[in-house]
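Subject: sequence -> structure tokens, single chain

Hey, anyone have a minute? Need the predicted structure for the following. Not urgent.
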Amino acid sequence: MNFRKRLSLLALTALAVCVLFTFHQFITSLPTLNRAHKQVRNGEVYDQYDERDAQMSHIVRPLRRPRPGEQVWGQKGVSKPWEIFTREITKDYMYTEDAPYMGALLDSLGTAEIANTTMFRGGSQVKLYFTLADGSRAIVKPMRKSRDFIYEVTEPFWLDQERHNAEIASFHLDRVLNLRRVPPCAGRVINMTREILEKTKDEELLKTFFTNKDGNLCFIGKCAPWFCNDEHPICGKREMMEVSLCQYLPMYKDGSIPVFEKEYPWSQGIKESKIWKAKNVCRNLLKDEKFLEGRYLLDLIELGIFDFFIRNYDRHHFDQLRQFGKESFVAFIDNGKGFGNPKPEADDKTFLAPVYQCCKIRNSTYERLKLLTQKESLLSDLLRHSLSYDLLSPVLTEDHIMSMDRRLQIVIETVDKCIEKHGTNFVLVDHL
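Reply:
Had a minute. Here:
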């Protein structure tokens, strides 16, 4: 082979290596289904969390995804996962503790073809509304901040932008706490051209798309002007973007929205918080029959605990499902402003006002919280493990995950102080 041919062959080989390396870097930069879980044993691929699943299964059911061709069963035979979820919602919980379809439902949210996209009207920040090919519908929040972004305690909470990963993490935390009040949420990476631009007829959404100077596809959407403006575009990496999909709740029988709102007595709003920070508002609530008839008060106390864990200042109302009326559980919906700061100085104990003002908590919830302090069932371990199933894993930084154990201790200490003051029988109850 002459020198020129040899030189050309070497150049082509070098080019091929560069292309393959670049492609490998691109592929590995995108989340894929449980890549971190796959290892090789005796030449066969296996899931390294099989053993961990077995250890934790008595505390939190493993989120096993269906194998190709595997059918999902509900109470009335083979069904789509979202149909089972919709059918099995009760007045007490969003889903059962067992919920064998849950892994398949999350898998569907993360992988099913997107059939239609539109802008979701409502709220102060951008949300999309996806209809999936299997008939399911989801509320979608785009990635705006990196995992390690911290919203400092000195910043006004009302200017905090929503985080897509907060919705995913909130579902998994709620599941580990066994409250089961957050709709199922999963993450995925979408192609904005193929799965938004080519799947929507929403002109208000389409006209806000543009390509920035870095060659990334962006959009602004339509929402509150301090969040939807030219200075705060939502941009992907080229055409790709991480999003969260939260399962849409079943519409009410007349086709209207599935939930109704009521004012949250312990809202962190500037005006509202002045009331309950100045006096114990629970004394009046305990005299109000409407708060004692159903699940209201005990659910609201658990909501305060949940918001303390995730540090969610955006809870001005609470939601209940219209199909169950006043007997409905309190749904923990819209958690996008959670998980903004894992530092100890961000552990705002005023979120626990429902606990220390009412000095009431469900006995089952208190026992669950204590269980999650045990070495073999630490909250941080269970949450990390549950989150590892998501396509966008790692969903949270390790600092956020470890902060859960610290905040759990604060919750338990707050309840224990109530017990010391009022006694176990007064504080730990099954109902009011």
